[in-house]
Amino acid sequence: MAVPVEYVPKTFRPRLSTYWWLGRWPYLRFILRELSSVSVAWFVVVTLVQIRALKRGPASYLAFQGWMRHPVLIVLNAIAFFFVIFHAVTWFNLAPKAMAVRLGGKRVPSLMIALPNYVAWAVVSAGVAWILLRG
Amino acid sequence: MAENIKLEVTRYHPGSDDEPRSQSYEVPLRKEWVVLDALNYVKDRVDGSLSFRWSCRMGVCGSCGMMVNGEPKLTCATFLADYAPGPVRVEPLKNFPILRDLIVDISDFLVKLAKSRPWLIRKESTPPPGEYLQTPEQLDAFKQFSMCINCLLCYAACPVYGLDPLFGGPAAIALAQRYNADSRDQGASERMDVLSHSDGIWGCTFVGECTEVCPKDVDPAGAIQQYKLTATKEWIKSLLMPRGER
Questions:
Q1: How close are the terminal C-alpha atoms of chain A, in Å?
Q2: CA nearest to A32 within chain B
Q3: Beta strands of chain A (E only): which ranges?
Q4: Which of B105, B159, B226 has the CB atom closest to A100's CB atom?
Q5: Cα–Cα 20 to 30 A to B219, which of A75, A96, B228, B246?
Q6: CB contact residues (below 8 A), chain A span 34-53, against chain B
Q7: Mind telling me how many Å the CA of A76 is from chain B's nearest CA?
Q8: How far, in Å, CA of B242 to CA of B246, rounded?
Q9: Closest-CA residue in chain B for A29?
């Protein structure tokens, strides 16, 4: 008696292009959001270098400030700053998706989840600005 | 309004084609016609060999999902007039093997769906007499996820699934979450191993397009992120109370 063989139809398996993220804005936006973590890492490195310069004394810190005034670094920091803001805004906007908070049997509106993040961001930023700019 | 519109339809015959090709058809451009009507016009009047899936024509059965001008759409709910003057590119759902023309092989999804155990699991061996009662609030907690019609537009929109076919995918995870969030269900711990696997929720990078293309507003991306929170809480609990019940 013949052994039954499972029928496997012939199919065509399309492959996703390496550049799948270039074709549609939502995909490109996702890749930019992922890449923006490089900007966050960049500012961490800058801060570490700044702290090291601070520890080494006034001459070293002046040299660091001179570095930071270099046009290339100003452009680089401006781009990194834009992406850090992009990172924060997209992250806060995604927070309501991950948090399904229910109060009194109803789901708390997305805005009420995102808003506290923005408020906390503004308060911390104002605190940092106050410490740095008070004189 | 122009009288006709051009459809550019993907054709693939497994017996004679090595790869898919495109074929153009002129169809009447009518205000009330959806893309599915145009495909049925081609099938009935122009070329009977064109193959595609469809059934209800009213966004309920989930069988007529295709790529329309590169976007995953239910063709029964996608009006031709919105693409005038055309052409309208109709392709099989992305990220699935093509069986023939516009028909894709969804076996992989069906296996994954069964693994996520999308049914009510109870601890008692025989059900008690009567119904499991539920308040409107308890119904509201999972109702959104229960709207899924398995149309698989979310899989076509998910680049993670396209790149890694082992990924469980949006609908299977959202349907698991639908039962986890159901007050009558007691099977969350049984689903955890599949969901918390690296090919489960942690494979998702939160592109979010599954939610955008969902014709039923199921929000699978939300379901996955919510389960990430649940899984993390359970993991912390298991660290703090290694002998506690999960």
A1: 94
A2: B207
A3: 102-103, 106-107
A4: B226
A5: B246
A6: 34
A7: 27
A8: 9
A9: B207
Average pLDDT score over chain B:
92
Is the alpha carbon torsion for B239, B241, B243, B245 positive or negative?
negative
Q: Write out chain A residues lying below 8 Å of B140, CB-based.
A: 105-107
Q: Which domains does chain A have, with CATH numbers?
A: 36-133 (1.20.1300.10)
| Residue B89, φ and ψ in degrees, nearest 5 | -90, 120
d(CA B124, CA B68): 47
Provide the residue count of chain B: 246
Q: Which CATH superfamily is domain B4-104 in?
A: Beta-grasp domain (3.10.20.30)
Give the minimum alpha-carbon distance from B165 to chain A in angstroms, rounded to a whole number.
11
Q: For B222, which of A11, A23, A97 is closest by C-beta distance? A: A97
Q: For residue range A34-82, what is the model confidence (pLDDT) as tens digits?
A: 999 999 999 999 999 999 999 999 999 999 999 999 999 999 999 999 9
Give A60's contacts (C-beta < 8 A, 6+ positions apart): A52, A53, A54
Q: Which of B206, B227, B233 to mutate against chain A (most A CBs within 10 Å)?
A: B206
Which residues of chain B form CATH 3.10.20.30? 4-104
Q: Is the peptide bond before B87 cis (omega within 30 degrees of 0)?
A: yes
pLDDT tens string B182-193: 999 999 989 988
Q: Is there a contact between B225 and A98 if contact means CB atoms under 8 Å apart?
A: yes
Using alpha carbons only, what angle is made at residue B167 by residues B166 and B169, rounded to the nearest 5 degrees? Answer: 135
- How many angstroms separate the first and last alpha carbons of chain B? 62
Contacts of A35 in chain B (CB under 8 A): none
What are the chain A neighbours of B162 within 8 Å (beta carbons)?
16, 20
Average pLDDT over residues B5-23: 95
- In this complex, the residue of A12, A98, A105 whose CB is nearest that of residue B19 is A12
Higher-pLDDT residue of B239 and B56 is: B56
CA pair distance B177, B181, nearest whole angstrom: 6
Assign domain B107-240 to its CATH superfamily: Alpha-helical ferredoxin (1.10.1060.10)
